[in-house]
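Page 42, continued from yesterday. The earlier attempt failed because a stray header line got pasted into the input along with the sequence. Redoing it now with the clean sequence only.
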Amino acid sequence: MCIRDRLSADKLIINYDEKSKSKDKIKSVIAIDNVQVIQGKDTINSDYAEYFMNKDDVIFKKNVILNRSGNILTGEHLVLNKITKKATMKANPGQRVKAIYYKNSQ
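This time it went through. Structure tokens are written below.
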């Protein structure tokens, strides 16, 4: 996530790396309950999210809804690459990922 991204949740757990020589000592952020990330035209809602500073992926779990410019994708496990913006959604066993796609969405 970058400075223009927004993250909100009922509970945030921020883990620090005290041994880091970097100016930014945040190692990871865990968001729990009513998680919402707004990143440009994308909005992601879920019950849980993990963000590790040294990795390119953000992981969302439980009741995940990705709204990308009006196109909706729902499932139980989303991996979003911060660099490429590629999103991979999975469902629980016996369930399906659901999508609402608009051909002319901007």
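Notes: The two ends are 22 Å apart (CA to CA).
Reminder to self: strip header lines before submitting.
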